[in-house]
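Task: sequence in, structure out. Protein: LacI family transcriptional regulator.
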Amino acid sequence: MARLAGVSQTTVSLVLSGNKQGIALHPDTRARVLQAARQLGYAPDPAAQRLAAARNDLLGVFSFTATFPTDVAHSYYPILVGVEQEAVARGYDLVLFTGSSSAPAQAGRTDALDRVRLADGCLFLGRHVPADELRRLVEQGYPAVHIGRRDELDTLAWVGADYAEATAEVVRRLADLGHRGMALVCETDEALASTDRERGFRGALAGAGLSGGVVRAADPAAEITGAWVRAQLAAGVTAFVAEETDTCAAWRALLTAVEEAGLTAPAEVSLALLGSPPADLAHHPEPTGFDIPKAELGAAAVRTLAALLTAGEADYSPLVPCAFRPGHTAGRAPAT
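Result:
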């Protein structure tokens, strides 16, 4: 690298280490070193960096969502609140990496995650992640925790909500109200949070000997209509369940479809939401379902990352239970 940039090895070290000594360097010299580093595909080794300098007590937060969740209406915002509160309590500052939000297509580049090395360790969140890049980062020894289950990355620590059990509890509560036919409406999405809900739904139906099915809609607003709801009722479905996502598209479509069908909940049909409703639907009756402990998820992720930084490993329970929410959209199944 020094040869390519036309400088000494000492100068290369100064530039790549951030020149903490404050030695005067010409801007052109620094630019040549950085250009050489890019050409050679240089990625700083996190372990070596921590040996060379004390930790800076910075925790990173990297989001794979289309917009970084700093708006209070964003479904991930309460997670950031929990992250911030726990980080402050433990003496850490936060660095928010927003590049993938402004240009999400770049999140899969081979060097897209290297900038998180500015922090001692990083929290990641988002339904869809570049698995290969995250795996590479962790295998190089960088402390990382994903907020949300990530079984496919066996080297990555994660904390997540127990969606499967929470969904099963909703099904059992609906069964207690006399519902024998149920339908789960999901978006066309293979995210683990979605498959966990489906697994809990199917398992609870089978355990109680109930009938039902799962509908995965690529365009919920177009596919979940009043006519569809009427057809489901004719087939014996009396309770409709929808998953929560960033957009809550399935729940929005279900509410609209029930209204189009001329039905009311819970008098004529029961509805449940597997998660929390979006802020812009606060004027609707509170849905039956469960609340995701988002602030606790954020706090648990910080505790896990802190353990990785201080002890090199984390002894923790990755699943956080969700609390059932009675709400006002589910009632006893109609007699006919």
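The two ends are 78 Å apart (CA to CA).
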